[in-house]
Amino acid sequence: MTSEVPLHNSLLFRLLVTSVLISLVSIGATAWLTVRGTTVAIEQERGQALADDATIQETLEGFAATHSDWKGVERTVLDLSRSTGRTIVLTTRARQIIAASHRSAAERLPPNESAVIDPLHVAPSKAGSADQASRIDPRAVGPYRLPAEERAKLRQVARDEVDCLYDKTGVRAHIVEEASGRPTLRTTRTSGEFIPACRSKGLSMPTPTEVAALAELTGLVRGCAERHHVRLPEPLTITIGFRVDGDDSMESPAAVDDCVEEGRREQLTAYVAPAALLFVISPPRSAIAAFDLSPAGTLRVLATTGLVLAATVAVTAVIATRLVRPLRALAHAARDPSGSHVRIPVTAKDETGYLAAAFNELSERRQRTDEQRRVMVSDIAHELRTPLTNIRGWLDAAQDGLAETDSALLSSLQEEAELLQHIVDDLQVLAAADAGTLRLRPEDLDLRGLIEQTVSAHRATAHAGGVEIAVHAPDGLSVHADPVRLRQVLGNLLSNAIRHTPPAGRVTLSARRVAGAVAIEVKDTGSGIREADLPRVFDRFWRAEQSRSRRTGGSGLGLSIVRQLVRAHGGDVSVASRPHVETVFLVRLPS
Hints:
Residues 321-371 form the HAMP domain. Keywords: Kinase, Membrane, Phosphoprotein, Transferase, Transmembrane, Transmembrane helix, Two-component regulatory system. The chain is 52% helix and 13% strand. The protein has helices at 11-66, 73-84, 103-107, 124-127, 148-169, 201-204, 208-228, 253-268, 295-334, 351-399, 407-435, 447-464, 483-499, 550-553, 558-568, and strands at 87-91, 97-100, 115-117, 174-177, 183-186, 237-238, 244-245, 276-281, 443-446, 468-472, 478-481, 506-514, 517-524, 572-578, 582-590. A five-stranded mixed sheet has the order 10-12-13-15-14, covered by helices on one side. A four-stranded antiparallel sheet has the order 2-1-8-3. Helix 1 runs antiparallel to helix 2 (73-84) and helix 9 (295-334) packs parallel to helix 10.
């Protein structure tokens, strides 16, 4: 059978076109990105080299500022070498090796060092102190490092100032800890407008540790002043920011600052590592491959592009064929003129496989539905044929003079007509339920009264069969339901229980309130239902004992009607049975 789908609408054709377009765009984008990335990489290489040099120098200066010697610097040098790809050698001023990332490089040092690592003589921009002319690394704190107890006290004072600042000005500040451990406040605004209102002396006054260190620094500054004949203000007071408090008449403030700087270097010398020479050696730069735009190179590019396209088309064709094959099989099966229930082989676990499995399930359900429909039509014909045959037989007998048209004959014909009408009414109820046109007229009902009415209507039948009926339902238990339909539900269950309960048996109707619902139980001590038959109890025209006659076994529609009516009320019905012990039908209705 040829496909009726035009080529331009074919799924296979569209997948091939899509794959070719994607391949062309991918190849073009890859080529452009390669050229662009190479250009950017060349431009960034120089900047990265400068950044790596700055990182190496900054890291080693920090190590020197926080250590009194160079012990343990080998690991730092190795880590820097691995992260930057550079060869790093650190020596003394006499070029004696302190640490080296590669031993071979230590034997052939360049004539000039890359930098001098001295935390007491760094570039002014790196010092970061309040005095931008200072060339002492701010990480070199030496005797000014605060112990944990003093840090905790100052941090609490800083928190109080942050809270005060927010309460009075609405400005949020955060605490920044300096290298010595002293906390300072930082805000997004200039501090001069609002911080003084919350400034406390506790944060600006030196701690005992700082007082001792500043006292030592004061003595060193005085010694410097004597050597250089600089007049100092009296009394000489150096703040924790390493500034000298003095009046405007102080002679040569720059000279005083120089002595403070010199005193600090002298004070910190014992706490920092000695100056060292840094050698940073770059690896040999590999030649950057240039694009070959010669005819041979162009042919290679075109050949590569053609191979990529051919491979893409081939792979897409294979995949598309596997995708289209089950879809075509589904189309053929759906249009099969024989009308038989065709099954599609499930060859994949993807969406098409799921679609084939769903089609097979649909076909099976359709087959079961057709079978049920045929069985139902046969059962309906059988159920209607029996009373009609009886009626016709008696009428023929009366017409031929074989039976007298007395009251007994009329009563028999009346009974057969009522049975026929009962079957028709049951079928009408089920048809309305299936079509969704079953109308209910719910109202608030006294459930105990409704149960007693139903029992009263069936008490004579139960008495004739020697069956006892008991009712257990509390007073005041109400339910919102259609009284006629609910009485029909209970009547069907009760008549079914009486019919299957032997003499001296017992049928019990009980009702109770459960979580969010009302439960009604119809329990009998009859023959029961086998476990294998329980799933089919509510099927139409089904009987547990197929050999029973219609008169003893009913039409087989009662329980089906029960389920439809209960579901129409928004409830559910279930059954549990122990053969020859008890059978319980449980109806749950929303309260």
